[in-house]
Each structure stands twice: as structure tokens, then as C-alpha cells.
């Protein structure tokens, strides 16, 4: 960042000496260079789009049509039967309730986990920027470093801790785990955001006698809507897509959608119904895909925010 | 680290009336209370659980973590187990390929998108959407596409290309490439976004100067722009690398470790021993090895980022 800043500062000196043509150059549309660029991009786009196409098309077919063996083909008579079956009656072993319980479990996990983790991280970020105390930076450094520790390292002791707390195998346990493991990235996000706000606002409120929570709720929160949106997108997609924590901490009754999906598709019993499998897969992907397409640039911002170093 | 903190700290100090040593604990008390969840997370989970795991990996714990200290025996057992060794070899092979291809494809796509093309946002949208999906969805879709009888192979054979072969998912020697195709599908768009941000951060003047000097475009990218993007590259390597070490969901969904044990990975080994193998000590030893791997990736990065602070900026 500082490098580009110094570069930008030195522009007037060089800009005077280099004579650059202004305005767009008239160019023919089909240059070899452009043909190469677009063909590579189109090739990769096909690679990215092909699975989506196959997934949706297969889900709209019937099994006899699938057995005919052409995954490129459009469905002859598109039907949502497989979607209905996937939602209501697809089997995992002996349990034939479809994906809908998993969907609602995922909703029950995602909403509270998102709210709790974002709130705690926002407070952390605020405290780290405006109310530093002895050791606060060390805690933050370990927090960030800790986000790189493989989950498997902490998994077993966390099972024991949640068991001691009496919440193992419940929604509370999953929510707690998501809050803990969402903390590093979210805290980083909020810390960087609050650090970018003008400190005078905080100081003025401080001089006027406002305390920790008052400044947080009345000054900081109203100004941080953008970063809340980014955090929201990051958490909703991240928690919805989680598999490991759901399978370990939620307990069989509370398995999230990803776990149930995997159990439905990869269960060894019976002949596989590929249209139902793909319908179930589309259904599970629908929530994050909706978030992705609705949020547009915000998703990119969230993804990039994860990569911005503190 | 503390240079920006000093004026702030001083400011709050005057408000709080400067003074007693006792106030150290009470100083910013609401902030300390608010930060309790963070402190607990750091101390209990990131530090406590990690130390616990390292310690109990040196015990002979079986069903419950109550065993007695036996030193490095679990590690000896670990590296004498063929499933673990296969897992490690797989992770190294997959990891190197995945890292290289993700970076190269991500960079190339970012460069192409940066050529002031039409439909830029459409291309970006298409490239990034897989990243929004879970590894389970990714694995299951590709499992279906790579289904030998009814997937891509079957389709092309039905269409007349009778000796077309794409049975990687069922072929022990090729199954890692099947994982790679699915993994790249999921992750390259993310890498592209990072790289594009890096490219856009390079000053226009650099390009003008390179053009004036008559340096060809590809040469400018490799010799000037890439080195300038070092920060983004290092970040990308660390994020992609630590993701690779964690590789678990994708394997479970796509191959479940098969055929046989040919696509097993360490994370899956650890999980199975801890939760269904009834041999916690083994699982914890495997987990500690995973931690060690991450440290080997992280320490050079931490050194580059924070160690050499003085000479940069």
C-alpha cells in the first residue's frame, strides 16, 4: 500500500516528460490477440459452467432418460419430481425424510451463529482499535495465527469441552464452534474497518463522556453497515457450507444440510437415483448461490477482505 | 506496533485521571470485559486445545484420552501405517499440483481479465461462483460428471468416441487428478480475484515506463509486475496452502478415500481415528503432524511479513 502511495506521489514529475496519446485508439475488433484472450476465457468459463449445467439438467430428467447416457442432453420432458423427492422423501439409510430437515437445521445453525459471531467480532475489533489494553495486540496476533491451525488439531479437546458444558450434540455446540472459528477473520475485518474510521469521532465522543458501549452502539455501529454486509455474506455462505463442525458437534438430529446431502448421495443402500442426487445437490447449493448472485460485488469484497493482511 | 497506540492511550489516560498501579487491571475495564470471548478463544481453544492435543498425542489413549505418557511411540506407529503414508504422499502430490495450478490459472485469468475486455463482470461472476458452493456440492457434482458409465465417459462413448477414457475417479493411479479437477474448479476463481486485485494495485506509471523502454508485455508481467505483487502472492500461497492441508470435505464427497485407500488424506485419517477408529492417540498424533506442516508453511511467511519489517516500508 505504502509503495503505491509513494509512486502516486511522484506522478506529476514523470507525467510531464512522457507524451501519451489520449483517448481510445481505433482498433479492429478481431485481432489475433483478442481472439486468443477471448477463447481462453470462454474455455475456462465452460469449465466453470459445465457442472452447473449438468447438475440442473440431470435434476430435471427421469432415471430412464439418465440411463440412456447423455449428460449433455437437455431433458426431454423437464420434471420437478426429483426435486420434490429430494426435498421430502430421499433416504439416508432407513430414514426417508428427504433434505428438508437438514435445510431447517442449517437455518437454525446459520442464523444464530452468524449473529453471535458477527456481534462478538465487531466488539473485538472496536476494542482492539479504540480501547487497546496491555496485551490486546498479543491476543489479536495469536487469534490470527490460530486461524491457520488445522481444525483437526483442536477438534477432540473441543468435543470434550462441549461435553463438559453439556451441549455436545446440540445446536448450541455448533453455534459456539462457528463463533469461535469465525472469530479470527471477522475480528480482522472489523479491526481494519474501525481503524480506517476517523479517530476524531471517537475522541470527541470520549470527551463528551460517552462510555465503551454507548460509543459502540451509537457511533460505531451506525457507521459500519458496509462491513456488516461483508461479514454477513462471509458468515452465511461459510456456515451454510460447513460440513466438519456439523458432523462432529451437531448430533444426528441436527445434521445440517451438507451432511444430510452427503449421506443421501453417498449412502450405499439401493440403486442410486441420479436425478434425485443432483436435485438434492442443487437444493443445497441454492442458498449460497442466491447470496452470491444477489450480493454481487459485496461477495467479492468479502472474499478479498479475507486476504487483506492486518 | 504500538506507535499508533501511544497518542490514544495517552488521551484516555488523562480522561481517567492518571495514577495508581492498581489501575492497570481496571484501566479500560469495559473493553477488557468485552474482549473476554476473544481471550477465552485464544487461551482455551487456540493455545489450550493445541497444547492438549500435542501432549495427548504422546499417550497411549485408545477410546478415551486417559492413557499414560509413552513418548513418540504413536508417531512411530503413524509412520509405520501404510494408510497414513499414502495419505501424506497424496497430500504432497495433490498439494503441489493444486498450489501450482491454482496460482498459474488464477494469475493467467486475472491477466486476461485485466486486458480491458468486454463482459468483464460476466466472466468474473462465472469464475467465482464455484467458490460460493460447499466442497460437498463440488465433490458430488464432479462425482456425477466423472461417473464412468453415465457421466462424461459414457456420454462420449455413446456419441461414437468408443475408446474415450475418463475413469479417473475409479482409477487408483488417476484419482488424485480427479480431486484436482474438482478442487481447481472450486478455488481458481478465488485466486483470480486475489491476483486481479494485485494487478490493479500496480501503478499505471510502471506500465508506461515499461512501454517506453520497449519491454514486451509478457516480460513486463513476469519481471516487473509479478515481483511487485509479492505481497498478494505470498498471501495467496498461505491461504491456498493452509486450505490444502485441511482438505477433507472434498475427498469425503468425491471419493471417500477410494478406490481402496488411494485418495486418503491426513485430515480424513485423523478424523477416522478420533471418532470412529477408537484410537485417539493415533488421531492426535496425525493432527499434530498436520499442525507441524502448517507451521512449516507459516513460519517463513511470518518471518517475511513481520520479521523483516525494518528494511521494508
From TrEMBL, chain A:
Specify the protein's topology with respect to the membrane. Multi-pass membrane protein
Cellular component, GO, one term: plasma membrane
Kindly report the protein's main subcellular placement as a broad class: membrane
What's one GO BP annotation on this UniProt entry?
transmembrane transport
Q: ABC transmembrane type-1 domain spans which residues?
A: 103-295
Where in the cell does this protein reside?
Cell membrane
InterPro entries listed in its UniProt record: MetI-like, MetI-like_sf
What protein name does the entry list?
Answer: Sugar ABC transporter permease
Keyword terms: Membrane, Transmembrane, Transmembrane helix, Transport
**What stretches pass through the bilayer?**
35-56, 109-129, 138-159, 165-190, 211-234, 274-294
Pfam families per the record? BPD_transp_1 (PF00528)
Q: Which family does it belong to?
A: Belongs to the binding-protein-dependent transport system permease family.
Biological classification of the source: Bacteria, Pseudomonadati, Pseudomonadota, Alphaproteobacteria, Hyphomicrobiales
Species, as recorded: Devosia riboflavina
Amino acid at each position: 500500500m505504502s509503495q503505491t502511495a509513494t509512486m502516486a506521489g511522484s506522478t506529476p514529475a514523470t507525467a510531464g516528460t512522457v507524451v501519451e496519446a489520449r483517448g481510445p485508439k481505433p482498433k479492429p475488433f478481431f485481432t489475433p490477440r483478442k481472439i486468443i484472450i477471448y477463447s481462453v476465457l470462454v474455455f475456462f468459463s465452460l469449465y466453470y459452467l459445465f457442472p452447473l449445467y449438468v447438475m440442473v439438467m440431470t435434476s430435471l430428467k427421469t432415471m430412464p432418460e439418465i440411463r440412456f447416457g447423455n449428460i449433455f442432453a437437455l431433458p426431454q420432458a423437464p420434471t420437478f419430481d426429483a426435486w420434490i423427492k429430494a426435498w421430502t422423501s430421499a433416504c439416508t439409510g432407513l430414514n426417508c425424510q428427504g433434505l428438508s430437515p437438514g435445510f431447517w437445521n442449517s437455518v437454525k445453525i446459520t442464523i444464530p451463529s452468524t449473529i453471535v459471531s458477527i456481534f462478538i467480532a465487531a466488539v473485538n475489533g472496536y476494542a482492539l482499535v479504540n480501547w487497546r489494553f496491555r496485551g490486546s495486540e498479543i491476543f489479536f496476533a495469536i487469534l490470527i495465527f490460530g486461524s491457520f491451525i488445522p481444525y483437526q488439531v483442536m477438534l477432540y479437546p473441543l468435543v470434550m469441552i462441549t461435553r463438559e458444558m453439556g451441549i455436545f450434540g446440540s445446536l448450541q455446540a455448533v453455534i459456539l464452534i462457528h463463533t469461535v472459528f469465525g472469530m479470527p477473520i471477522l475480528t480482522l475485518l472489523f479491526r481494519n474497518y474501525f481503524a480506517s474510521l476517523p479517530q476524531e469521532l471517537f475522541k470527541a465522543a470520549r470527551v463528551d463522556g460517552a462510555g465503551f458501549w454507548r460509543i459502540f452502539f451509537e457511533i460505531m455501529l451506525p457507521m459500519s453497515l458496509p462491513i456488516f454486509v461483508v461479514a454477513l455474506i462471509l458468515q452465511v455462505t461459510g456456515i451454510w457450507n460447513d460440513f466438519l463442525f456439523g458432523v462432529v458437534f451437531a448430533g444426528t438430529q441436527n445434521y445440517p444440510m451438507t451432511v444430510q446431502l452427503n449421506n443421501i448421495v453417498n449412502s450405499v443402500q439401493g440403486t442410486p437415483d441420479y436425478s434425485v442426487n443432483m436435485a438434492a445437490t442443487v437444493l443445497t447449493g441454492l442458498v449460497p448461490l442466491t447470496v452470491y448472485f444477489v450480493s454481487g460485488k459485496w461477495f467479492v469484497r468479502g472474499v478479498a477482505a479475507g486476504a487483506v493482511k492486518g | 506496533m504500538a506507535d499508533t497506540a501511544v497518542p490514544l492511550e495517552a488521551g484516555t489516560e488523562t480522561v481517567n485521571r492518571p495514577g495508581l498501579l492498581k489501575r492497570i487491571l481496571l484501566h479500560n475495564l469495559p473493553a477488557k470485559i468485552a474482549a473476554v470471548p476473544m481471550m477465552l478463544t485464544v487461551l482455551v481453544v487456540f493455545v489450550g486445545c493445541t497444547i492438549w492435543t500435542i501432549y495427548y498425542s504422546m499417550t497411549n489413549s485408545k477410546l478415551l484420552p486417559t492413557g499414560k505418557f509413552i513418548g513418540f511411540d504413536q508417531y512411530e506407529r503413524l509412520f509405520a501405517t501404510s494408510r497414513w503414508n499414502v495419505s501424506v504422499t497424496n497430500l504432497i502430490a495433490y498439494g503441489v499440483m493444486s498450489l501450482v495450478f491454482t496460482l498459474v490459472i488464477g494469475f493467467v485469468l486475472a491477466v486476461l481479465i485485466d486486458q480491458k475486455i468486454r463482459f468483464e463482470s460476466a466472466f468474473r461472476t462465472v469464475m467465482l461462483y464455484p467458490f460460493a458452493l460447499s466442497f460437498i456440492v463440488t465433490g458430488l457434482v464432479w462425482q456425477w460428471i466423472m461417473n464412468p458409465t453415465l457421466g462424461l465417459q459414457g456420454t462420449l462413448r455413446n456419441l461414437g468416441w468408443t475408446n474415450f477414457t475418463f475413469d479417473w475417479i475409479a482409477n487408483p493411479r488417476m484419482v488424485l487428478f480427479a480431486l484436482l479437477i474438482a478442487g481447481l474448479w472450486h478455488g481458481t476463481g478465488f485466486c483470480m480475484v486475489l491476483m486481479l486485485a494485485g494487478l490493479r494495485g500496480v501503478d499505471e506509471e510502471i506500465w508506461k515506463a515499461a512501454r517506453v523502454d520497449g519491454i514486451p508485455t509478457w516480460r513486463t508481467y513476469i519481471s516487473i509486475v509479478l515481483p511487485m505483487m509479492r505481497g498478494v502472492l505470498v498471501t495467496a500461497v498461505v491461504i491456498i496452502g493452509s486450505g490444502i492441508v485441511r482438505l477433507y470435505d472434498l475427498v469425503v464427497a468425491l471419493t471417500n478415500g477410494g478406490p481402496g485407500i488411494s485418495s486418503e488424506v491426513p485430515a480424513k485419517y485423523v478424523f477416522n481415528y478420533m471418532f470412529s477408529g477408537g484410537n485417539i492417540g493415533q488421531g492426535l498424533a496425525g493432527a499434530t503432524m498436520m499442525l507441524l506442516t502448517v507451521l512449516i508453511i507459516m513460519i517463513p511467511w511470518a518471518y517475511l511479513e513481520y520479521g523483516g519489517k525494518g528494511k521494508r516500508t
